[in-house]
Amino acid sequence: MSENDTPAFPADLTALQTRLHPARAELEALGRTLPWSVEPLPGWAPKINDNTGEIIKPGREPSPGYTPEQLAEDTRLRALVRDLSDQVSTHPYWGTFERGPKLVDARIALKSHPDVLAGLPAAAA
Fold first, then answer.
1. Which position has the higher pLDDT, 122 or 98?
2. Is the pLDDT of residue 109 over 70?
3. CA dihedral defined by 84, 17, 69, 61, rounded to 10 degrees?
4. Cα 94 to Cα 15: distance, rounded to the nearest angstrom
5. Mean pLDDT of all residues in 29-53
6. pTM for the whole structure
7. Residue 109 and residue 105: Cα distance in Å, rounded?
């Protein structure tokens, strides 16, 4: 689909996609700051090859687990992303396409549609 073939999406669908982009980015950013385990768990030492001294399985530091605030924010963002993803993927607009490449191309085009990108915060675009 070329830029000249940019489909005209319903305004409510582009609004949903515009909200989904930063919600997903916020969830990913949060995930990068969280401990590796929700619950406190001990770490483990790396496994070393006895002959070469090479690390064959990395170790892991102990996890303090999520704080209640971290857990609440993770839960909130996951629910938001799930809800917005469901609304975008089940929008009635998609029923106007037959299954196949044109539907796939349209779904891909929505993610970078000018109306979607124009509605994003500057840092998210």
1. 98
2. yes
3. 100
4. 15
5. 96
6. 0.79
7. 6
- The tokens describing 80, both together, are 């938001």
Judged by DSSP in three states, 20 sits in helix
CA distance 119 to 109: 15
% helix, strand, coil for the chain, step of 5 = 55, 5, 40
Report the pLDDT averaged over residues 12-23: 95
State the average pLDDT for the chain. 91
How high is the pLDDT of residue 5? 61
The pLDDT, as a whole number, for residue 1 is 47
The answer to whether 103 touches 97, Cβ cutoff 8 Å, is yes
Q: Which residue has the tokens 């496994």?
A: 47
d(CA 88, CA 79): 14
Contact 24, 111 (CB under 8 A): no
Distance CA 62, CA 39 (A): 11
Could you give the CA distance from residue 52 to residue 117 in angstroms, rounded to a whole number? 52
